[in-house]
Amino acid sequence: MDPLAIKIQDMSFKYDGDTSISYTHFNLTIAKGERFGLFGPNGAGKTTLMNLMTGLLPFNEGSIEVLGQQIKGNHKQISKLFGFIPQDFSFYQELSPAENLQFFGAWSGLNKQQIKSRTTELLEILGLADVRDKPVQHFSGGMKRRVNLAIGVIHNPPILFLDEPTVGVDVQTRHAIINYLLELNKNGTTLIYTSHQLSEAEDLCQKVALIDEAKIVAHDDLSALLLEHEQDGLEGLFLSLTGKDYRN
Ligand SMILES: Nc1ncnc2c1ncn2[C@@H]1O[C@H](COP(=O)(O)OP(=O)(O)OP(=O)(O)O)[C@@H](O)[C@H]1O
């Protein structure tokens, strides 16, 4: 069994038209069971890379493997190997958490019984049991983030992609989400995370990659990078490697 969750080899990608970034002969590996954080300034290409790794964007050259399987030509099988918690809410606002989980659970190939037990379990863990049948549109931002998370993990994926999973939440929800993610990782889930919340990232990630203009500027254990660059936190490391200029 391949010990890698993700293997990107010589991958090139460019958006149609004249945009500021393109990936050129890009390489990256993420080991199984890793808590991997991808960081970089606005517009560095983090979301683009997430979308390439999940097959949402087709790349032009090279290869991307997820748990040893090529993405190209295998979209359906690959999509069962991961959950994706996108930056934007990805559920039906007019449906309740239970109805959303029923829909997305069926979409991921779970049977009725599996959906029922996972829904009860997840809504309990994520503090949504009391509102399981209420329309999501009336929920607070923190509750909506938890619904987004429940949907992404309903099928118990071995890899979880998280694109800014805690934007706009209060301290309690952030704490609960991070603890839940750490628990998933203890049970073997590979976490691939990106965020601008660097103190949160220090709690969550053991391995980090910093990217700028679609190129890796550093990739190692967080503790090794801090030592190497004589920094005591991710924010200092980030500024020392990507500079202090504004990005668009
Ligand atoms: N669908 C698209 N079509 C054309 N260009 C795009 C598209 N999506 C993103 N871009 C461009 O690609 C670049 C990288 O965007 P991306 O969203 O990947 O960056 P990011 O690192 O996630 O930024 P942020 O931290 O602001 O979320 C930006 O210049 C953006 O304008």
UniProtKB/TrEMBL annotation:
Span of domain ABC transporter: 6-238
Organism: Mucilaginibacter paludis DSM 18603
Keyword line: ATP-binding, Nucleotide-binding
GO molecular function: ATP binding; ATP hydrolysis activity
PANTHER family: ABC TRANSPORTER G FAMILY MEMBER 20 ISOFORM X1 (PTHR43038:SF3), ATP-BINDING CASSETTE, SUB-FAMILY H, MEMBER 1 (PTHR43038)
Protein name listed in UniProt: ABC transporter related protein
Pfam families hit by this protein: ABC_tran
Superkingdom assignment: Bacteria
